Amino acid sequence: MSANNMSGPQRVNKIIRYKPPSTDANPTLEDPTPDYMNLLGMIFSMCGLMLKLKWCAWIAVYCSFISFANSRSSEDTKQMMSSFMLSISAVVMSYLQNPQPMSPPW
């Protein structure tokens, strides 16, 4: 191979760095799914803790995972981790209070 092919056929003056579109100019680009799942996870966690419903606690864990998976790195991680820990504590407490297997909600 020649030295000319090693550098590649790039045009250095034509390279433009990618900038993601800002959500300030277009608010429809922001995805509300992590926020909704975070709220649902907290509601189901509280239902699992207060009402001792195991299926609510498991749904809270599921919602927390979805919220974590769909979140951006720039979002507040403290709220997400507190929601996740609340859902885990709901599962642990519901099984500590009643170690029987989960019964179906119907």
UniProtKB/TrEMBL annotation:
Biological process (GO), any one: protein insertion into ER membrane
Transmembrane segments: 39-68
Signal peptide: none
Domain of life: Eukaryota
Record flagged with keyword Transmembrane helix: yes
UniProt-listed Pfam families: ASTER (PF03669)
One function term, GO molecular function aspect: protein folding chaperone
Keywords for this protein: Membrane, Transmembrane, Transmembrane helix
GO CC terms in record: endoplasmic reticulum membrane
Subcellular location per the Swiss-Prot or TrEMBL entry: Membrane
UniProt cross-references to InterPro entries, sorted A to Z: ASTER (IPR005351)
Keyword Membrane in annotation: yes
Family note: Belongs to the Asterix family.
Protein name as it appears in the record: PAT complex subunit Asterix
Species of the source: Coregonus suidteri
